[in-house]
Amino acid sequence: MRKPSGSAALTRPMARLLGAVLACALASAPACSPGNGSAASRYRDAADRIRDMGLRDEGAIEFLRRITAAGPRLTGSAEAAAAVEIGRRLMLEMGLDRVHLELVTVNRWTRGPKEEARIVGSASLGTVPLAVCALGGSIATPDGGLTAPVVEVGSFEELDRLGPAVSGRIVFFNRPMDRTRLDAFAAYGGAADQRVRGASEAARHGAVAALVRSLTFRVDDHPHTGLMTYAEGVARIPAAAVSTAGADLLSSLLKKEGAVSVHLKMGPRDEGPVPSANVVGEITGTDLPGEIILLGGHLDSWDLGTGAHDDGAGCAVSLEALRLIKALGLRPRRTVRAVLFMDEEFGGTGGRFYARAAERTGERHLAAMESDRGGFLPLGLAGGSDARAARRLGRWLDLVRPLGIDSLGPGGGGVDVGPIVRQGAVPLSVIPDAQAYFDVHHSALDVLSAVGPRELEFQAVILATYAYVLAQEGI
Ligand SMILES: [Zn+2]
Questions:
Q1: Which residues are placed with Cβ below 5 angstroms of ligand 1, an ion?
Q2: Which of 358, 457, 380 shows the shortest CA–CA distance to 23?
Q3: What is the pTM of this model?
Q4: Whether residue 311 has a cis bond before it, omega within 30° of 0
Q5: pLDDT tens digits, one per residue of 14-71
Q6: Alpha-carbon gap, residue 330 to 50, rounded angstroms
Q7: Could you tell me how far CA 426 lies from the centroid of its own chain?
Q8: How many angstroms separate the Cα of 426 from the Cα of each of 126, 324, 382, 471?
Q9: Residue 5: pLDDT above 70?
Q10: What is the dihedral of CA 381, 386, 391, 394, to 10 degrees?
Q11: What is the DSSP letter of 324?
Protein backbone atom coordinates (compact mmCIF):
# COMPACT_ATOMS: atom_id res chain seq x y z
CA MET A 1 0.00 0.00 0.00
CA ARG A 2 1.27 3.39 -0.88
CA LYS A 3 2.28 5.40 2.10
CA PRO A 4 -0.10 8.31 2.56
CA SER A 5 1.60 11.66 2.31
CA GLY A 6 0.99 15.04 3.89
CA SER A 7 -0.12 15.90 7.35
CA ALA A 8 -2.58 13.01 7.53
CA ALA A 9 0.40 10.71 7.86
CA LEU A 10 1.70 12.46 10.94
CA THR A 11 1.08 11.11 14.37
CA ARG A 12 -0.70 13.53 16.67
CA PRO A 13 2.43 14.48 18.67
CA MET A 14 4.36 15.00 15.43
CA ALA A 15 1.61 17.17 14.05
CA ARG A 16 1.63 19.19 17.24
CA LEU A 17 5.37 19.66 17.06
CA LEU A 18 5.18 20.70 13.41
CA GLY A 19 2.37 23.09 14.22
CA ALA A 20 4.45 24.58 16.99
CA VAL A 21 7.49 25.01 14.73
CA LEU A 22 5.36 26.61 12.02
CA ALA A 23 3.68 28.89 14.52
CA CYS A 24 7.09 29.87 15.85
CA ALA A 25 8.27 30.65 12.35
CA LEU A 26 5.23 32.83 11.74
CA ALA A 27 4.91 34.47 15.13
CA SER A 28 6.58 37.78 15.81
CA ALA A 29 6.81 36.97 19.52
CA PRO A 30 10.42 36.99 20.68
CA ALA A 31 9.48 34.32 23.19
CA CYS A 32 9.08 31.64 20.56
CA SER A 33 11.93 29.23 19.97
CA PRO A 34 12.24 25.71 18.59
CA GLY A 35 12.04 23.08 21.27
CA ASN A 36 9.28 24.83 23.21
CA GLY A 37 7.17 21.79 22.62
CA SER A 38 9.26 19.46 24.74
CA ALA A 39 9.17 21.61 27.89
CA ALA A 40 5.47 22.23 27.51
CA SER A 41 4.66 18.60 26.76
CA ARG A 42 5.26 17.69 30.40
CA TYR A 43 2.18 19.74 31.24
CA ARG A 44 0.02 18.74 28.30
CA ASP A 45 -2.15 16.45 30.38
CA ALA A 46 -2.70 19.04 33.14
CA ALA A 47 -3.48 21.74 30.56
CA ASP A 48 -6.00 19.49 28.81
CA ARG A 49 -7.72 18.70 32.10
CA ILE A 50 -7.84 22.36 33.12
CA ARG A 51 -9.32 23.28 29.75
CA ASP A 52 -11.88 20.49 29.75
CA MET A 53 -13.07 21.22 33.26
CA GLY A 54 -13.20 24.97 32.70
CA LEU A 55 -15.16 24.78 29.47
CA ARG A 56 -17.50 22.15 30.90
CA ASP A 57 -18.23 23.96 34.19
CA GLU A 58 -18.04 27.62 33.10
CA GLY A 59 -17.39 28.44 36.75
CA ALA A 60 -16.11 31.98 36.14
CA ILE A 61 -19.53 33.38 35.31
CA GLU A 62 -20.94 32.04 38.58
CA PHE A 63 -18.21 33.85 40.51
CA LEU A 64 -19.07 36.96 38.52
CA ARG A 65 -22.76 36.56 39.28
CA ARG A 66 -22.01 36.36 42.99
CA ILE A 67 -19.71 39.40 42.93
CA THR A 68 -22.04 41.62 40.88
CA ALA A 69 -24.94 40.64 43.16
CA ALA A 70 -23.41 43.08 45.66
CA GLY A 71 -24.40 45.86 43.24
CA PRO A 72 -22.26 48.80 42.14
CA ARG A 73 -19.13 48.60 44.29
CA LEU A 74 -17.89 52.16 44.52
CA THR A 75 -14.80 52.41 46.72
CA GLY A 76 -15.76 52.95 50.36
CA SER A 77 -19.45 52.16 49.80
CA ALA A 78 -21.62 49.67 51.68
CA GLU A 79 -21.82 47.60 48.47
CA ALA A 80 -18.02 47.44 48.24
CA ALA A 81 -17.94 46.25 51.87
CA ALA A 82 -20.55 43.59 51.00
CA ALA A 83 -18.40 42.50 48.03
CA VAL A 84 -15.40 42.06 50.33
CA GLU A 85 -17.45 39.65 52.43
CA ILE A 86 -18.75 37.86 49.31
CA GLY A 87 -15.19 37.48 48.02
CA ARG A 88 -14.01 36.09 51.34
CA ARG A 89 -16.90 33.63 51.43
CA LEU A 90 -16.24 32.45 47.85
CA MET A 91 -12.64 31.70 48.76
CA LEU A 92 -13.67 29.82 51.90
CA GLU A 93 -16.32 27.84 50.00
CA MET A 94 -13.75 26.56 47.52
CA GLY A 95 -11.42 25.58 50.35
CA LEU A 96 -8.54 27.94 49.69
CA ASP A 97 -5.73 28.23 52.23
CA ARG A 98 -5.08 31.29 54.40
CA VAL A 99 -8.18 33.22 53.35
CA HIS A 100 -7.99 36.63 54.95
CA LEU A 101 -8.66 40.34 54.57
CA GLU A 102 -5.86 42.90 54.45
CA LEU A 103 -7.04 46.31 55.62
CA VAL A 104 -6.86 49.26 53.24
CA THR A 105 -7.80 52.85 54.01
CA VAL A 106 -9.67 54.37 51.06
CA ASN A 107 -11.30 57.70 50.36
CA ARG A 108 -15.06 57.71 50.01
CA TRP A 109 -16.74 59.87 47.39
CA THR A 110 -20.52 59.78 46.89
CA ARG A 111 -22.45 60.84 43.82
CA GLY A 112 -25.46 62.25 45.65
CA PRO A 113 -28.85 62.68 43.94
CA LYS A 114 -29.18 61.98 40.22
CA GLU A 115 -27.55 64.78 38.23
CA GLU A 116 -29.65 67.18 36.17
CA ALA A 117 -28.51 68.89 33.00
CA ARG A 118 -30.22 70.63 30.12
CA ILE A 119 -29.48 72.83 27.19
CA VAL A 120 -31.35 76.09 27.78
CA GLY A 121 -32.26 78.94 25.50
CA SER A 122 -31.57 77.21 22.20
CA ALA A 123 -33.14 79.33 19.42
CA SER A 124 -34.26 76.21 17.52
CA LEU A 125 -34.90 73.64 20.28
CA GLY A 126 -35.59 75.64 23.43
CA THR A 127 -34.80 73.42 26.42
CA VAL A 128 -33.36 69.91 25.86
CA PRO A 129 -32.29 67.46 28.58
CA LEU A 130 -28.71 66.16 28.51
CA ALA A 131 -27.61 62.80 29.93
CA VAL A 132 -24.72 63.56 32.27
CA CYS A 133 -23.02 62.10 35.33
CA ALA A 134 -20.57 63.62 37.76
CA LEU A 135 -16.99 62.52 37.23
CA GLY A 136 -15.42 60.64 40.13
CA GLY A 137 -13.91 63.10 42.59
CA SER A 138 -15.84 66.12 41.36
CA ILE A 139 -17.26 68.72 43.71
CA ALA A 140 -20.95 69.68 43.64
CA THR A 141 -22.52 72.62 41.85
CA PRO A 142 -24.10 75.32 44.04
CA ASP A 143 -27.37 74.12 45.60
CA GLY A 144 -29.66 75.37 42.84
CA GLY A 145 -27.24 74.30 40.10
CA LEU A 146 -25.47 76.64 37.71
CA THR A 147 -26.31 77.96 34.26
CA ALA A 148 -23.65 79.33 31.92
CA PRO A 149 -22.83 79.70 28.22
CA VAL A 150 -20.85 76.80 26.76
CA VAL A 151 -17.52 76.95 24.94
CA GLU A 152 -16.45 73.84 23.01
CA VAL A 153 -12.78 72.88 22.73
CA GLY A 154 -10.98 69.94 21.13
CA SER A 155 -7.70 70.26 23.00
CA PHE A 156 -5.92 71.96 25.87
CA GLU A 157 -4.02 74.06 23.31
CA GLU A 158 -7.29 75.38 21.96
CA LEU A 159 -8.41 76.12 25.51
CA ASP A 160 -5.20 78.05 26.19
CA ARG A 161 -5.64 80.08 23.01
CA LEU A 162 -9.13 81.08 24.13
CA GLY A 163 -7.74 81.95 27.57
CA PRO A 164 -9.87 84.59 29.36
CA ALA A 165 -12.67 84.12 26.80
CA VAL A 166 -13.85 81.05 28.75
CA SER A 167 -14.16 82.95 32.02
CA GLY A 168 -17.61 82.49 33.58
CA ARG A 169 -18.44 79.73 31.06
CA ILE A 170 -18.75 75.95 30.96
CA VAL A 171 -15.88 74.43 28.98
CA PHE A 172 -17.09 71.52 26.86
CA PHE A 173 -14.29 69.07 26.00
CA ASN A 174 -15.49 67.24 22.90
CA ARG A 175 -12.47 65.45 21.43
CA PRO A 176 -13.72 61.93 20.59
CA MET A 177 -11.76 58.72 21.00
CA ASP A 178 -9.79 58.30 17.76
CA ARG A 179 -11.59 55.61 15.76
CA THR A 180 -8.58 55.06 13.51
CA ARG A 181 -6.57 53.65 16.42
CA LEU A 182 -6.74 49.86 16.18
CA ASP A 183 -5.96 49.49 19.88
CA ALA A 184 -9.08 50.60 21.77
CA PHE A 185 -7.01 51.23 24.91
CA ALA A 186 -4.77 53.59 22.93
CA ALA A 187 -7.86 55.46 21.66
CA TYR A 188 -9.11 55.73 25.24
CA GLY A 189 -5.71 56.86 26.48
CA GLY A 190 -5.61 59.52 23.77
CA ALA A 191 -8.82 61.16 25.00
CA ALA A 192 -8.75 60.52 28.76
CA ASP A 193 -6.70 63.62 29.58
CA GLN A 194 -9.86 65.71 29.05
CA ARG A 195 -11.66 63.75 31.75
CA VAL A 196 -8.77 63.61 34.21
CA ARG A 197 -7.37 67.15 33.90
CA GLY A 198 -10.07 69.09 32.05
CA ALA A 199 -11.69 70.76 35.05
CA SER A 200 -8.48 72.28 36.40
CA GLU A 201 -7.27 73.33 32.95
CA ALA A 202 -10.61 75.09 32.38
CA ALA A 203 -10.57 76.61 35.88
CA ARG A 204 -7.15 78.20 35.23
CA HIS A 205 -8.95 80.45 32.76
CA GLY A 206 -11.92 81.17 35.03
CA ALA A 207 -14.42 78.57 33.76
CA VAL A 208 -17.27 77.64 36.13
CA ALA A 209 -17.68 73.97 35.15
CA ALA A 210 -16.33 71.30 32.78
CA LEU A 211 -18.42 69.02 30.59
CA VAL A 212 -16.52 66.14 29.01
CA ARG A 213 -17.57 63.93 26.10
CA SER A 214 -17.95 60.35 27.35
CA LEU A 215 -15.04 58.04 26.51
CA THR A 216 -16.66 55.50 24.21
CA PHE A 217 -16.78 54.78 20.47
CA ARG A 218 -20.55 54.37 20.70
CA VAL A 219 -22.98 57.19 20.11
CA ASP A 220 -25.75 56.72 22.67
CA ASP A 221 -27.35 58.29 25.72
CA HIS A 222 -25.23 56.67 28.43
CA PRO A 223 -22.74 58.93 30.20
CA HIS A 224 -19.47 57.24 31.22
CA THR A 225 -17.89 58.31 34.49
CA GLY A 226 -14.30 57.88 35.65
CA LEU A 227 -11.69 59.51 37.81
CA MET A 228 -10.86 63.21 37.55
CA THR A 229 -8.34 65.08 39.67
CA TYR A 230 -7.90 68.68 40.74
CA ALA A 231 -4.55 70.41 40.31
CA GLU A 232 -3.02 71.93 43.43
CA GLY A 233 -3.59 75.67 43.80
CA VAL A 234 -6.31 75.91 41.13
CA ALA A 235 -9.97 76.72 41.88
CA ARG A 236 -12.12 73.57 42.01
CA ILE A 237 -15.06 73.52 39.60
CA PRO A 238 -17.68 70.79 39.00
CA ALA A 239 -16.91 68.26 36.26
CA ALA A 240 -19.40 65.99 34.48
CA ALA A 241 -19.38 63.55 31.58
CA VAL A 242 -22.04 64.03 28.92
CA SER A 243 -23.27 61.15 26.75
CA THR A 244 -21.86 61.02 23.22
CA ALA A 245 -25.32 61.63 21.73
CA GLY A 246 -25.71 64.65 24.03
CA ALA A 247 -22.23 65.87 23.09
CA ASP A 248 -23.02 65.62 19.37
CA LEU A 249 -26.28 67.54 19.84
CA LEU A 250 -24.63 70.25 21.92
CA SER A 251 -21.81 70.61 19.40
CA SER A 252 -24.20 70.89 16.45
CA LEU A 253 -26.27 73.55 18.24
CA LEU A 254 -23.14 75.54 19.05
CA LYS A 255 -22.14 75.44 15.37
CA LYS A 256 -25.62 76.40 14.21
CA GLU A 257 -26.56 78.98 16.80
CA GLY A 258 -23.22 80.27 18.05
CA ALA A 259 -24.31 80.65 21.67
CA VAL A 260 -25.93 77.95 23.82
CA SER A 261 -26.17 77.71 27.60
CA VAL A 262 -26.35 74.64 29.81
CA HIS A 263 -27.87 74.24 33.24
CA LEU A 264 -26.07 71.72 35.45
CA LYS A 265 -26.99 70.52 38.92
CA MET A 266 -25.17 67.81 40.84
CA GLY A 267 -24.35 67.07 44.44
CA PRO A 268 -21.39 64.70 44.89
CA ARG A 269 -19.49 64.82 48.17
CA ASP A 270 -16.09 63.83 49.45
CA GLU A 271 -16.77 61.83 52.64
CA GLY A 272 -13.15 61.33 53.69
CA PRO A 273 -11.21 58.19 54.58
CA VAL A 274 -12.96 54.91 55.49
CA PRO A 275 -11.62 51.41 56.20
CA SER A 276 -11.87 48.73 53.50
CA ALA A 277 -9.90 45.64 52.49
CA ASN A 278 -8.15 43.54 49.88
CA VAL A 279 -9.37 39.92 49.89
CA VAL A 280 -6.59 37.33 49.78
CA GLY A 281 -6.71 33.55 49.43
CA GLU A 282 -4.30 30.99 48.07
CA ILE A 283 -3.30 27.44 47.37
CA THR A 284 -0.19 27.29 49.51
CA GLY A 285 2.79 25.80 47.69
CA THR A 286 3.93 22.35 48.77
CA ASP A 287 7.68 23.04 48.39
CA LEU A 288 8.22 26.79 48.12
CA PRO A 289 5.30 28.47 49.91
CA GLY A 290 7.05 31.85 50.14
CA GLU A 291 7.32 32.10 46.35
CA ILE A 292 4.10 33.55 44.99
CA ILE A 293 2.30 33.39 41.65
CA LEU A 294 -0.24 36.19 42.02
CA LEU A 295 -3.53 36.50 40.17
CA GLY A 296 -5.92 39.36 40.70
CA GLY A 297 -8.46 41.92 39.64
CA HIS A 298 -10.16 44.79 41.40
CA LEU A 299 -13.29 44.33 43.45
CA ASP A 300 -14.36 47.98 43.47
CA SER A 301 -16.20 49.42 40.48
CA TRP A 302 -17.92 52.57 39.35
CA ASP A 303 -21.43 53.14 40.57
CA LEU A 304 -23.49 53.42 37.37
CA GLY A 305 -23.47 49.71 36.44
CA THR A 306 -22.34 46.72 38.46
CA GLY A 307 -18.77 46.65 37.16
CA ALA A 308 -19.13 43.26 35.48
CA HIS A 309 -16.40 43.74 32.88
CA ASP A 310 -14.58 46.33 35.00
CA ASP A 311 -13.49 44.50 36.97
CA GLY A 312 -15.76 41.83 38.38
CA ALA A 313 -14.46 39.80 35.44
CA GLY A 314 -10.86 40.05 36.63
CA CYS A 315 -11.85 38.89 40.12
CA ALA A 316 -13.98 36.06 38.70
CA VAL A 317 -11.29 34.65 36.40
CA SER A 318 -8.70 34.82 39.17
CA LEU A 319 -10.98 32.87 41.51
CA GLU A 320 -11.90 30.40 38.77
CA ALA A 321 -8.25 29.78 37.95
CA LEU A 322 -7.60 28.74 41.55
CA ARG A 323 -10.78 26.68 41.65
CA LEU A 324 -9.69 24.72 38.55
CA ILE A 325 -6.23 24.00 39.95
CA LYS A 326 -7.68 22.90 43.27
CA ALA A 327 -10.63 20.92 41.93
CA LEU A 328 -8.34 18.92 39.65
CA GLY A 329 -6.13 17.97 42.59
CA LEU A 330 -3.09 19.68 41.12
CA ARG A 331 -0.62 20.46 43.90
CA PRO A 332 1.44 23.54 43.00
CA ARG A 333 4.99 23.62 44.36
CA ARG A 334 4.85 27.38 44.78
CA THR A 335 1.92 29.34 46.20
CA VAL A 336 -0.80 30.36 43.75
CA ARG A 337 -2.64 33.33 45.24
CA ALA A 338 -5.72 35.31 44.26
CA VAL A 339 -6.10 38.90 45.43
CA LEU A 340 -9.31 40.88 44.99
CA PHE A 341 -7.91 44.39 45.18
CA MET A 342 -9.84 47.33 46.60
CA ASP A 343 -9.88 50.82 45.13
CA GLU A 344 -8.29 50.56 41.73
CA GLU A 345 -10.66 53.16 40.33
CA PHE A 346 -9.89 55.94 42.80
CA GLY A 347 -6.15 55.64 42.66
CA GLY A 348 -4.91 52.12 43.33
CA THR A 349 -4.61 52.24 47.11
CA GLY A 350 -5.29 48.46 47.38
CA GLY A 351 -2.30 47.61 45.19
CA ARG A 352 -0.02 49.91 47.16
CA PHE A 353 -1.22 48.57 50.53
CA TYR A 354 -0.76 44.99 49.33
CA ALA A 355 2.84 45.50 48.25
CA ARG A 356 3.91 47.04 51.56
CA ALA A 357 1.74 45.00 53.96
CA ALA A 358 3.42 43.26 56.88
CA GLU A 359 2.14 39.97 55.44
CA ARG A 360 4.63 40.35 52.55
CA THR A 361 7.60 39.75 54.86
CA GLY A 362 9.46 36.67 53.66
CA GLU A 363 7.48 36.46 50.44
CA ARG A 364 8.86 36.71 46.94
CA HIS A 365 6.46 37.33 44.08
CA LEU A 366 7.58 35.63 40.89
CA ALA A 367 4.67 36.51 38.64
CA ALA A 368 1.86 39.06 38.88
CA MET A 369 -1.09 38.26 36.63
CA GLU A 370 -3.58 41.12 36.69
CA SER A 371 -6.83 40.91 34.70
CA ASP A 372 -8.46 44.30 34.13
CA ARG A 373 -9.22 44.59 30.43
CA GLY A 374 -12.77 43.26 30.33
CA GLY A 375 -14.09 39.70 30.23
CA PHE A 376 -13.82 39.26 26.46
CA LEU A 377 -12.30 36.52 24.31
CA PRO A 378 -8.52 36.30 24.75
CA LEU A 379 -6.38 37.16 21.73
CA GLY A 380 -2.92 36.76 23.22
CA LEU A 381 -0.69 37.25 26.21
CA ALA A 382 1.47 40.16 27.28
CA GLY A 383 4.20 40.00 29.85
CA GLY A 384 7.78 39.58 30.83
CA SER A 385 9.74 42.43 32.36
CA ASP A 386 12.71 41.74 30.08
CA ALA A 387 13.65 39.56 27.10
CA ARG A 388 14.74 36.67 29.29
CA ALA A 389 11.50 36.62 31.28
CA ALA A 390 9.48 36.89 28.06
CA ARG A 391 11.40 33.95 26.62
CA ARG A 392 10.75 31.93 29.78
CA LEU A 393 7.03 32.71 29.69
CA GLY A 394 6.88 31.90 25.98
CA ARG A 395 8.05 28.33 26.63
CA TRP A 396 4.51 27.45 27.68
CA LEU A 397 2.59 28.99 24.80
CA ASP A 398 1.96 25.58 23.26
CA LEU A 399 -0.28 24.73 26.21
CA VAL A 400 -2.73 27.54 25.43
CA ARG A 401 -2.58 27.35 21.65
CA PRO A 402 -5.81 25.30 21.53
CA LEU A 403 -7.50 28.40 23.00
CA GLY A 404 -6.26 30.50 20.11
CA ILE A 405 -3.27 32.00 21.93
CA ASP A 406 -0.24 32.17 19.67
CA SER A 407 1.74 35.11 20.90
CA LEU A 408 3.22 36.77 23.92
CA GLY A 409 3.92 40.45 23.42
CA PRO A 410 5.48 43.05 25.70
CA GLY A 411 3.44 44.63 28.49
CA GLY A 412 1.15 42.97 31.01
CA GLY A 413 0.81 44.38 34.47
CA GLY A 414 -1.65 47.05 35.60
CA VAL A 415 -2.48 49.49 38.37
CA ASP A 416 -2.99 46.90 41.09
CA VAL A 417 0.13 44.81 40.52
CA GLY A 418 2.28 47.81 39.57
CA PRO A 419 3.85 48.14 43.05
CA ILE A 420 4.65 44.42 43.32
CA VAL A 421 6.04 44.41 39.77
CA ARG A 422 8.31 47.29 40.75
CA GLN A 423 9.57 45.01 43.53
CA GLY A 424 10.59 42.41 40.93
CA ALA A 425 7.53 40.31 40.03
CA VAL A 426 7.23 39.49 36.34
CA PRO A 427 3.95 40.83 34.89
CA LEU A 428 1.77 38.61 32.75
CA SER A 429 -1.72 39.40 31.42
CA VAL A 430 -4.26 37.84 29.13
CA ILE A 431 -5.05 40.36 26.39
CA PRO A 432 -8.68 40.08 25.34
CA ASP A 433 -10.43 41.57 22.33
CA ALA A 434 -11.22 45.01 23.77
CA GLN A 435 -12.98 46.58 20.78
CA ALA A 436 -16.34 46.58 22.61
CA TYR A 437 -14.92 47.26 26.08
CA PHE A 438 -15.38 51.02 26.04
CA ASP A 439 -18.99 50.62 24.89
CA VAL A 440 -19.78 49.64 28.48
CA HIS A 441 -16.76 50.83 30.51
CA HIS A 442 -17.69 53.00 33.55
CA SER A 443 -21.34 53.21 32.44
CA ALA A 444 -24.71 51.75 33.34
CA LEU A 445 -24.19 49.20 30.54
CA ASP A 446 -21.43 47.37 32.44
CA VAL A 447 -23.61 44.60 33.89
CA LEU A 448 -23.51 40.80 34.10
CA SER A 449 -25.53 40.26 30.89
CA ALA A 450 -22.80 42.10 28.93
CA VAL A 451 -20.30 39.31 29.72
CA GLY A 452 -20.13 36.09 27.70
CA PRO A 453 -19.69 33.07 30.02
CA ARG A 454 -17.57 31.13 27.54
CA GLU A 455 -15.34 34.06 26.62
CA LEU A 456 -14.77 34.70 30.32
CA GLU A 457 -13.93 31.05 30.91
CA PHE A 458 -11.28 31.07 28.16
CA GLN A 459 -9.47 33.71 30.22
CA ALA A 460 -9.72 31.65 33.40
CA VAL A 461 -8.42 28.52 31.68
CA ILE A 462 -5.39 30.35 30.29
CA LEU A 463 -4.65 31.90 33.71
CA ALA A 464 -5.02 28.55 35.48
CA THR A 465 -2.71 26.83 33.00
CA TYR A 466 -0.02 29.47 33.28
CA ALA A 467 -0.36 29.84 37.05
CA TYR A 468 0.05 26.11 37.56
CA VAL A 469 3.01 25.72 35.24
CA LEU A 470 4.78 28.78 36.68
CA ALA A 471 4.14 27.44 40.18
CA GLN A 472 5.93 24.23 39.17
CA GLU A 473 8.71 25.69 37.06
CA GLY A 474 9.28 29.26 38.30
CA ILE A 475 10.31 31.94 35.84
ZN1 LIG B 1 -10.72 48.36 35.97
A1: 310-311, 372
A2: 380
A3: 0.91
A4: yes
A5: 334 333 333 333 333 334 443 345 789 999 999 999 999 999 999 999 999 999 999 9
A6: 10
A7: 19
A8: 58, 23, 11, 13
A9: no
A10: -10
A11: H
Q: What's the 11 CA to ligand 1 centre distance in angstroms?
A: 45
β-bridge pairing 146-153 and 261-265: antiparallel
Ligand 1 centroid distance, CA of 432 (Å)? 14
Q: CA angle, corner 103, sides to 102 and 106, nearest 5?
A: 135
The phi-psi region of residue 167 (left if phi > 0; otherwise alpha if psi is between -120 and 50; otherwise beta) is beta
* Closest to 393 measured CA to CA, from 332, 469, 333: 469
Ligand 1 centroid, distance to 250 Cα (angstroms): 29
Active site residues: 344
Per-residue b/e over 173-206, b at no fewer than 16 CB within 10 Å? bbbbbeeeeeebeebbebbbebbbbbbbbbbbbb
Strand order of the β-sheet with 170-173 is 126-129, 116-122, 261-265, 146-153, 170-173, 209-213, 239-242, 132-134
If you measure from the C-alpha of residue 242 to the centroid of ligand 1, how many angstroms do you get, rounded to a whole number?
21
Find the 414 Cα to ligand 1 centroid distance in Å: 9
Specify the range with the lowest mean pLDDT, choosing from 120-124, 177-181, 295-299: 120-124
Q: How many CB atoms lie within 10 A of CB 270?
A: 12
What's at 74, amino acid-wise? L
